[in-house]
Amino acid sequence: MCGIVGLFLKNPKLEPQLGSLLSGMLVTMTDRGPDSAGFAIYGSGNAGVKLTLRATGRAVLSEAVAALEGELGRGVEVVERDTHAVIGVPEEAETRVRAWLAANHPEIDVVSVGRVMEIYKEVGLPGEVAERFDLAGMHGTHGIGHTRMATESAVTTNGAHPFSTGADECLVHNGSLSNHNGLRRVLQREGLRFATQNDTEVAAGYLSWRMREGDSLKQALEAGLRDLDGFFTFVVGTRTGFAVLRDPIACKPAVMAETDDYVAFGSEYRALVGLPGIAAARVFEPEPATVYAWERH
Amino acid sequence: MPVFDLNQAPLRELNRTLHGLRPDTNETHWTVTGPDGRHAIAAGLDAPVSVEIEGHVGYYCAGMNKQAQVIVHGNAGVGVAENMMSGFVHVQGDASQAAGATAHGGLLVIDGNAGARCGISMKGIDIVVKGSVGHMSAFMAQAGTLVVLGDAGEALGDSLYEARLYVRGTVRSLGADCIEKEMRPEHLAELTEKLAAAGLSGEVGAGEFRRYGSARTLYHFNVDNAGAY
User: Fold this and answer.
1) Which of B7, B96, B132 to mutate against chain A (most A CBs within 10 Å)?
2) What is the CATH number of the domain that holds B51?
3) Model-level pTM?
4) Which of A40, A126, B50, B57 could form a disulfide with B61 if both were Cys (CB 3.0 to 4.6 A apart)?
5) ipTM of the assembly?
């Protein structure tokens, strides 16, 4: 099964409420995915890049960050949230930080990298996961969330969505892909790296690859219709974009709502009922095999 | 005229109350507020009552309906009026996938569009969609009529049995064993009757439609195909 939610704000006045709105949407989708939950928030950005790190506990992260500061010879901006920590580093230091983490703290996962995007995911009920990271208190321009009922791989934090395979890029998925093993090998030859055996991570990697090769988000998804085989409803975020795509068979549910203030996605309409002005929104079911994309300007 | 607010009392209580109505009940007109996309609203009714739902509903609204009239002032999720036996279901917005699936009788009218697989495996229901229907509509449809004022998506009527399909707009493609058929006087009469039942008398003429049905070539196993298995 799985539940997906997404919210892309057009009206900046709603930005302080992004987290609380998304949290409400996510929790409503608990009965579609009680195993684990995750979300990506596109918030504020400073000069450098933000790395969202995840470890088994806070102590591991604190210790690693202190050692990293020693390694870099400078302070590192840190925001800790439960098992995750977001660190801000200069853009040119990203590769070095990643290598240092891999060598010295292999138990720490780099969940996401980006100028504005942060990703949090954990095993557990969506409501508990949202609370642990204080999703309701987060601000931002757009966000995507997922509640997982695992079918293709184990219930682990690494199997939770969103998946990110490029800076400020993330993807959530309801469905299952059948050609992910072959496609993963193709993408690995193109230089992409994968952290799991998960099918969704391959879809994320595929879009990152297409965009790296010059496609827009819309073009990348259109190419995906040709190259990705299986069931899917995808919601994708980039630094400035938000997109939705369903496979041509469209077994997996999707409902969207659009107003002057936002575009919202839910696996079911129930996820959208708490949004402001929903009664007057244009509510529609996205067509199969059709890319819906929005960009911030 | 009882009013039931689903934000004040649980859905199970609504359905239990509606299921408990006796055939001679005087409470024949119900209004349901705050549906908020909840699933299985007014499912399993079996009484000659009218239920109006003020907003969007979730999955399986008015499923298994008998006798009752259910009106949705909004959109409907997956499987509205699925397995309906008799009665009338009216969706004033759009319907999602599998509207009227497997239904044996009654009339389902959708003012907007219906998603994929509208009327899948229908067994006698009459469905009138004022907008368009998605792909694989009337898949394995056995009996009844599907009337579409707009267009039909890919593979209309795939593996069709004896249901009759009438489409006014374009058909993206026909499914296996579904063909266009001649519109004879009895079909015009049947379609006129269905349009009237949906309140479209004088608005839409039966002559504007084309008829699709089964070529009946899949009814019996063809020994020449044995090698395919």
Assistant:
1) B96
2) 2.160.20.60
3) 0.93
4) B57
5) 0.91
